[in-house]
Amino acid sequence: MDTVTAPAAHARTRTRPGAGARRRYLLCPPEHFAVEYAINPWMDPGLPVDRAVALRQWRGLAAVLRSLGHRVDLLAPEPGLPDMVFTANGATVVAGRVLVANFRHRQRAGESAAHRRWFAAARFRQVRTAAEVNEGEGDLLVAGRRILAASGFRTTTAAHREAQRVLGLPVVSLELTDPRYYHLDTALAVLDDTRVMYYPDAFAPAARRELRRLYPDAILATAPDAAAFGLNAVSDGRHVVLPADARGLAGQLRAAGFVPVPVQFAELRKAGGGPKCCVLELRSQ
To answer: Per the UniProt record, which EC number(s) apply here (predicted)?
Structure first.
């Protein structure tokens, strides 16, 4: 079975109708998913990929999000763009303002135009493609009234300043130093407006100090849970959808009052992605 939807968690949700605000997400089916190049340490073009399994695991993720009461919109996949399934990398959306990604690697550059067309068709009025290298919610995570932004591998510090101007929220810059955690959303997850979880060893010393200052009660992931992409998680403020292999992190979340919802995601992880990579939040407010 490819998806575990945590029935007990769903039962608790029914008794607490205010838990987990309804969100709107953009996903893209992995119909053209493949590992044809290596632009992060997880990618090995010589390792076989089972697209049918990837599609089944992605459908399980979409079903879980809908079962939690969230709206799922779809971006049509395009041939020649095998990483389009990772919609979170394509843009950042705050209060209806859209900053479309400007990808570092040429292999993904075509995804920017695909995202921009979708936002235009969906009648988002303020849509701008980044001038600076910027990989969307991969590196720009909205955390309440601030944006946590990464540099070091994909998104530049100049892009942080651009994001602050365009999206209207103050940006906190954090440097990543471990190439396995090349995007912020592989090393840190926003749980709600005031709480995060992260893997300290993925960050430069100054970034670790800043995270301790901002989030003294953060959940700290172990190395095995980080390597299982446990931090590449989708939270609605109560339910946290994360890879099933991150069992220790699921226990920490439960102890902190969240409801972990584990999903199987091993096939898409072959390209260096997890549940959050596949989910772009569309914030209208």
So the answer is: 3.5.3.18
